[in-house]
Amino acid sequence: MEDYRFKVNLGGMIEILSDHLYSSPDVYIRELLQNGVDAITGKKKLEEVSFASHGKADGEDLGKNAGQGVEGCISLDIEEGKSLIFSDNGQGLTEEEIHRFLAIIGESSKRNLESGRIETDYIGRFGIGLLSCFMVSDEIKMLTRSCKEDSPVLEWLGRPDGTYTIRKVEKGDYNQNQSREASQYEALASSCGTSVILSAKPGMEEYFTRDVIEKLIIYYGILLPFPILIRQNGKEKQMNPIFLPWEGRKTNSQELLLFGKLMFEEQFFDCVPFRSEEGNVSGVAYIRSYPVLPSARVSHRIYLKNMLLTEKGDNLIPDWAVFAKCIVNATDLRPTASREGFYVDEVLEAARDTIEDCLTEYIADLAENDPEKFQQFFRIHHLTLMSLALATPKLFGTLADYFHFETTRGNRTGYELRTCGEPLIYAPTEEKYKQLSQLFFAQDKQLINVSYVHSLDLLKRLGDMYQIEVSAVEDWEVEDLMKDLSPEDQDEGYEFLKMANHILKSFDCKAELKYFSPYHLPTFYLMDENTLLKRQIASSRSQSSAMFYNMLDAFASDLANERAATLYFNYNNPLVQKLAGCETEKDVKVFVEILYVQALQIGGFALHNNEMGMLNRNIMALMERGLSDV
Questions:
Q1: Which of 94, 156, 493, 612 is the most exposed place for a label (fewest CB within 10 A)?
Q2: pTM score of the predicted model
């Protein structure tokens, strides 16, 4: 049986890179920077190996050819809107290496020849980076000279159709019209390295302008540890500071905050340096000075070996840390093929845990040692900190005392609730809270509104931690706030109560006479969850189409028909006392219906169309009666 080899259509491969792997053509700068970094890293490794293996003399011989003692450097020579020459003084390539690494898709010059593994000192891993240049140029020309002794300067010319040529370059091969290329040859002839020469293809001219290239260098390579130079019209400018501001020397918060402002173009509240041995990850979390929704998507700067990898913190930055923008540099995390993210593995998870621990420790330390600053931090980010408190038990005790809850005794902190010495009774919905709050407030009883985001979960967790009873308000607790009438008042109100029950029957409501506070509140409407659902269905029916009308009718038919709503009349109220003395149901009906609708409005319940119409009719009837008596 004969074996056959796969063949790769380079044009199709470039289309895949453009449309599916890389997010935009500007990544060609990233890939060139990455190749330059790895070439410089490779040269340094060769020098170290030679020095260790053969002693100082041989190391000096290699250094003479390789430029030993000269720091790594990358330069970009721009012809505005037309072409770019990207150069590094790295290890360069031999002809055999060109055939192997540039002609075989997926082969990488960073692979160890014995183990077949990519060495961790390098950024690139997949052997496809240079192909990204075909996204902006119809041809890639490369001049290269290897650090190995007696290596010539070679010219490689690659085309998108999958063909390429290699030739040895001599000094006289360039004419006056190729002076820029001639200068590259002269530099390589006396040292080693690589120059990639690109010309803009139609429609891609903007990627060869100085403004765009400068922005891309700052975006992708500002943390690279050796100079990146831009050359144009005989002038030279260094683009990066060549050091990590949080490593290698002592730095203070002010210096880090200035760096964060440079990177993100905003002023931050504070900063938190972190370091993880797992993955060799280090960086700074910058605390934002303005509130952010817990669902917000945060833009970070995440680097792999000082080269920008992604702005997304997925799987590395905790989801709850939306109050922070992070600058992260990793050495030993594994990038995906597009180099726009990391593989999720045990090393990445350990690094994420370290970053999470640093942020939680920052919050705990701030609360303990700088209460004033913590209060400012808490006021800005309390919504996000709610999620953090629920997700992180060890921080709940620190944060819970600062959360605010709406109650009938005003806003109360978690600390005030847990030290009040009584059970914590809450209304589960905004409607229930509005309905009951007047009664509880008038009698100085505490009722907590937990309709806000995370409020109920925080309250229950607070009760669990401090062994406090936490429960939803029950109807019997509401009725305990009312007193039964005396026998004399029961006799006086008997006929009124009988008429009121007859009037309210059509509203699935019963009437009761009670004493309760405040005295100026004539009525109080109380319904159970079943009745509330029936009212909501009725409200929806009035606004729905025929199909949904029938569907809602079916839902309503499944609910019990007993009258579970009660309209309590306050016998402490002078108006109710006068109303109880009325002898004719016609007169009582007008006032009972008005008080019924008023009680619904006070309780925050939506009115049905017939109830609003009834209110208007009764008000008009009272007005006509009043005018007729004038």
A1: 612
A2: 0.68
> What does the pLDDT look like over 321-342, one tens digit per residue?
999 999 999 999 998 877 778 9
According to DSSP, residue 12 is labeled H
462, 470 Cβ separation under 8 angstroms: yes
SS3 143: strand
Do you find a cis peptide bond into 227, omega within 30 degrees of 0? no
Render pLDDT for 58-74 as a digit per residue (tens, 0 to 9): 444 444 443 344 478 99
Write the burial class of residue 137 (CB in 10 Å: 0-12 exposed, 13-18 middle, 19+ buried): buried
Q: What is the DSSP code (8-state) at residue 70?
A: S
Interval 499-543: pLDDT, tens = 999 999 988 899 999 999 988 999 998 876 666 555 555 555 555
325 Cβ partners below 8 Å, 6+ apart? 260, 264, 268, 285, 286, 288, 298, 299, 300, 301
For 518-582, the DSSP string reads -TT--EEEE--HHHHHHHHHHHHHTTS-HHHHHHHHHHHHTS--S--EEEEEETTSHHHHHHHT-
Cα gap 35→261, rounded to integer Å: 29
Element (H, E) at 390: helix 371-391
Angstrom distances, CA of residue 400 to CA of 176, 287, 403, 413: 75, 20, 6, 8
Per the CB < 8 A criterion, the answer to whether 259 and 247 are in contact is: no
CA dist 345 and 376 (Å) reads: 37
Instruction: Note whether 303 and 223 are within 8 A (CB).
Output: yes
List strand residue ranges (DSSP E) for 187-243, in order. 193-199, 228-232, 235-238
Residue 306: which region, alpha, beta or left (left: phi > 0; alpha: psi -120 to 50)? left
Q: Over 90: is that where the pLDDT of 439 sits?
A: no
Where residue 398 falls among pLDDT bands split at 50, 70, 90? confident
Q: Which two tokens stand for residue 423?
A: 């059970």
Query: For residues 425-460, b (16+ Cβ closer than 10 Å) or e, as one string?
Result: bbbebebbbbbbbbbbbbeebbbbbbbeebbbebbe
* Cβ contact 161:11 at 8 Å: yes
Structure tokens at 221: 């390579």
Which tokens in the block code for residue 559? 């609910």
Q: What is the mean pLDDT of the chain?
A: 83
pLDDT for the residue numbered 250 = 65
Tokens of 438: 């007047």
Sign, Cα dihedral of 119, 120, 123, 125: positive
| Phi, psi at 583, each rounded to 5° | -105, -20
Count of beta carbons in the 10 Å neighbourhood of residue 190: 9
| 147-200 pLDDT tens trace | 887 889 999 998 887 788 999 988 777 766 677 888 888 888 888 999 999 999
Residue-wise pLDDT for 440-461, tens only, equals 998 899 999 999 989 999 999 9
pLDDT at 376 over 50: yes
With tokens 């961790």, the residue in question is 120
